Amino acid sequence: MFFIRPIEPRDLEELITMADESGVGVTSLPANRQKMAAKIERAVQAFLGDVDQKDALYLFVLEDSETGELAGVSAIESQIGHQDVWYNYRIGNTVHASAELGVHKQTKTLYLSNDLTGTTEVCTLFLRERYRKGANGRFLSKQRYLFLAENQQRFSERVIAEMRGYSDEQGISPFWEGLGRKFFQMDFKDADYLTGMGDKAFIAELMPKFPIYVPFLSQSAQDVISKVHTNTEPALALLKQEGFRLNNYIDIFDGGPTVECRLQDIRAVKESGVLTWFEDNNRADITNPKGDVWMVSNQKFSEYRVIIVDGANFNNGSIALTSSEIDILKLSAEDKVRAVAIKPNIK
Amino acid sequence: MYIVRPASIIDLPGIEKLLANNEVRVTTLPSDRDKLGELLHLSALSFGKQLDNPKESTFIFILENIETGEVAGVSGLDAYAGVGYPFFNYRMEELIHASHNLGVHVTAEILYLSHELTGSSVLRSFAIKKELKDTPYFELLSRARFLFMAQDPELFSEVTVTEVQGQLNDQGDSDFWNSIGKHFFDIDFHTADYYVGIKSKTFIAELMPQHPIYVSLLTPEAQGVMNKAHPLTDRTCQLLSRDGFDKSRFIDIFDGGPVLKNKTKNIQTIVNSKQKYVVTSDLVGGIKYLISNAEYGEFRCTIGNLVDGIGGSVRLENSLAKAIHASDGDSIRYSFL
């Protein structure tokens, strides 16, 4: 059975292996032992609940309970841009008009901004190749909304996600080639690595500060503004399903879009509910033939757990759980659960 | 004999004919007849000191063949660039993007839209008959303006500038314009140029992008012509260079051509000019000088011989004195050629 739990120090080795597998573009997963250890330590502190909420990183792992192997990782940053400076380009508009000349021209313009400072970010979604099947990806991504729903006071009203921007098979980002490279001779891969190492603000400070008129960029760079990497399209689709929309901010390096949703408007937050539960080890006799897939969390903080229940079965608003599910969720008799259907509109 | 004199409205057809055959573009002389007429009218008021605000003075000079009366050239001078409106240029600057940790040190060239030269005196609107291009009359037409400025130093600014036409590509198009202005206007360089002529440069300039421009984002072609003068302006640039003009940090916002700049008090023609009394004579030796009378509305300037002695007067040959409207006892001003 797969379940979600907070990351622990013992996960370091597997996480490094995972980072090696993730390749270019997952900037928040650096393949560097020291940085990764620091990251885990931050998350461990966050789950103890006593860190400044402006600087809390919640790292979750998806574990296979049978093998103990990690299948993937996902995260939430409570409030971005407090430790360093958070940069985006905002896509603005400039109008040049003259009735006398018959000119009325709109020009897309990129404004360097720190506007997203303080927002909550869902980030670092990575599922290992061999686990990319069934509901795993969806589960890893969406379980975070149960955590957000449960702990709203710890997060911003605005929740964002940065989407990996387009790059080709060689890892070349046309946006980077058209803009960043003009300001310092560095391959995207290297800039990307340094970003993962936590040097993003560092590099950002080398980038042009004045607004950039989009027509000044090469056509290939213009074409990929707000365009996601092919591998990221499924992730974007999942976010859109939950109510996230492009918000006109893009990444300053690869031009990838940012999506945003108000916390309370996220579908899984809105639709999630606190339920009682009962033990039913015969749930295999599916009484719900539609086989709705539900995510069920234990409402705990440091001992946060989420499982996926395939073919959820209810009795008087109470959800049926098997004994092994109850064990994994670490539920005592008096505990309730927070649960939501993994897909919209199948309540 | 050729002389330089103030233009008047009757020069209009002569100027039009000159411009029609001119190989260098003269944006500041409108091809529209009414607009050109207005300019000549304003010039006449300026020479007549009839303007309420002398800072609006604009002077148009004519190079005339006094035997035939033909308009052989035209040149202009504004007392105060912009005359109440901003005078637009790009100012070229550099910002360093550097990080020791990352081993990065990049110089970012930036163009800032600037009004800094507003209020400078401006040399403008130079056009001369093709046949006279390689004669001393080219120099006469250009430098006569400096002797005129010496007549009224109070009126002119501390700084004098001139916008030199930028380089065009083989199609006669401006790569600089295509890389900047065209994105914001959807009109080609020549159309923009036409509007500059019939509206005003300021009018068009106000539509240009307001944010600073990173040079590295322009096309290589546009970067290549930045601050480069059109080959046809070589002689103009040489003459101005002898007078102490130099490229500045400013370039034209349309074609990227250089803006040459000098302190007015350092213009060599003015620095080396002398004012003396005329004694007319039948025969005068000496060497050639740029010689003008000391008039304003009746300003005349030509090239002629004199002996630069130590006294307070200087002898001028009769016909020369007559050509510049100077009689015995009048002041004249002259400078090296």
User: What is the annotated CATH architecture of the largest domain in chain A?
Assistant: 3-Layer(aba) Sandwich
CATH topology of the largest domain in chain B: Aminopeptidase
CATH level-4 homologous superfamily of the largest domain in chain A = Gcn5-related N-acetyltransferase (GNAT)
Mean pLDDT of chain B: 92
Describe the sheet with the most strands of chain A: 16 strands, mixed
CATH H level of the largest domain in chain B: which superfamily? Gcn5-related N-acetyltransferase (GNAT)
Any low-confidence stretches of chain A, pLDDT <50, length ≥5? Answer: none
Strand content of chain B: 25-35%
**Helical content band of chain B:** 25-40%
Strand order of the largest sheet of chain A: 8-5-4-9-10-7-6-3-2-1-13-12-16-11-15-14
**Rough shape of chain B?**
globular
Rg of chain A is 22 Å
User: How many alpha or pi helices of chain B?
Assistant: 11
In CATH, the topology of the largest domain in chain A is named: Aminopeptidase
- Count of discrete domains of chain B: 2
By CATH, the architecture of the largest domain in chain B is named 3-Layer(aba) Sandwich
What attributes characterize this protein structure?
heterodimer, A: 347 residues, alpha+beta, Aminopeptidase, Barwin-like endoglucanases, 2 domains, 16-stranded mixed beta sheet, 16 strands, globular, B: 337 residues, 15-stranded mixed beta sheet, 11 helices, 15 strands
Brief synopsis:
Chain A has 347 residues and is α+β, with helices and mostly antiparallel strands.
Walkthrough of the structure:
The complex is a heterodimer of chains A (347) and B (337). Chain A has ten helices and 16 strands. Chain A is of the alpha+beta class and 347 residues long. Chain B is built from eleven helices and 15 strands. The radius of gyration of chain B is 21 Å and the shape is globular. The chains are: A alpha+beta (347), B alpha+beta (337).
Summarize the topology.
The complex is a heterodimer of chains A (347) and B (337).
Chain A: E1 2-6, H1 12-22, H2 33-48, E2 57-64, E3 70-77, E4 88-98, E5 103-113, E6 120-127, H3 136-150, E7 158-162, H4 174-178, H5 180-183, H6 188-204, E8 212-213, H7 219-223, H8 233-241, E9 245-250, E10 257-262, H9 267-271, E11 273-279, E12 293-297, E13 306-310, E14 314-315, E15 318-321, H10 323-328, E16 337-341
Parallel strand pairs in A: 6-7, 11-15
Antiparallel strand pairs in A: 1-2, 1-13, 2-3, 3-6, 4-5, 4-9, 5-8, 7-10, 9-10, 11-16, 12-13, 12-16, 14-15
Helix pairs in contact in A: 1-2
Chain B: E1 2-6, H1 12-20, H2 33-47, E2 58-65, E3 70-78, E4 89-99, E5 104-114, E6 121-128, H3 136-151, E7 159-163, H4 175-179, H5 181-185, H6 189-198, H7 201-205, E8 213-214, H8 220-225, H9 234-242, E9 246-251, E10 258-263, H10 268-271, E11 274-281, E12 287-293, E13 301-306, E14 313-317, H11 318-323, E15 331-336
Parallel strand pairs in B: 6-7, 11-14
Antiparallel strand pairs in B: 1-2, 1-13, 2-3, 3-6, 4-5, 4-9, 5-8, 7-10, 9-10, 11-15, 12-13, 12-15
